[in-house]
Amino acid sequence: MERAFFATRWIAAPLYFGLTIGLLLVAFKFFQQLLGLVLKATGLDFDDVFVGVLDLIDLVLLANLLLIVMFSGYENFVSRLDIRQHEDYPSWIGHVTFGDIKIKLMASIVAMSAIHVLADFIRVDDTSTRALEWSVGIHLAFVVSGVLMAVMDRIMEGSPDTHHADPQPDAAQHKEKHDA
């Protein structure tokens, strides 16, 4: 029964792989927006170029977020990736905990939200006061949520309940306990 229950984690594997389609869509939108920006570049003022580049950065942040969730989620919840010997192996893979994923997710959302707030303020003449207020309010909600998540994660790191002892200590640990 426990083996079958443990094996259910593999149900998530296709979900993580499915995020590659999301990554492809983000890449498609990136190059679509980049091409549009390049084709219109001579007729754009600085603010339009600035907002266009911010949109590209937003898509790159989203792509990075997808990669973090795909790789670290798979490694944390499904199985280890057997690619550590690969020459392009990123050093962060395998070192991102579930708490790190939450913090990186929230930091990415805050960064993307900040980009949207900045774009709204660059286009302040075309943006209603109500829209600006909502934009800033939502951004502040994301910032506060991120800070609270980080604080909760820090509290949990210090909690003795989060550090589970190995149920089967190795022979050296066993010998140390009994010799004392």
UniProtKB/TrEMBL annotation:
Which positions make up the signal peptide?
none
Subcellular location(s) of the protein: Cell membrane
Membrane topology reported for the UniProt record: Multi-pass membrane protein
Decide whether keyword DNA-binding is in the record.
no
Q: Which UniProt keywords apply?
A: Cell membrane, Membrane, Transmembrane, Transmembrane helix
GO cellular component labels: plasma membrane
Q: Does the keyword Metal-binding apply?
A: no
- Transmembrane segments annotated in the record for this chain: 12-31, 51-74, 134-152
Query: Which is one Pfam family of this protein?
Result: UPF0114
> What is the superkingdom listed in this entry's lineage?
Bacteria
Question: Mainly localized where?
Answer: membrane
Residues annotated as region Disordered?
159-180
Matches recorded under PANTHER family = UPF0114 PROTEIN YQHA
The record's family statement is:
Belongs to the UPF0114 family.
| The name this protein goes by in its record | UPF0114 protein GCM10007867_11910
What organism is the protein native to?
A: Gluconobacter cerinus
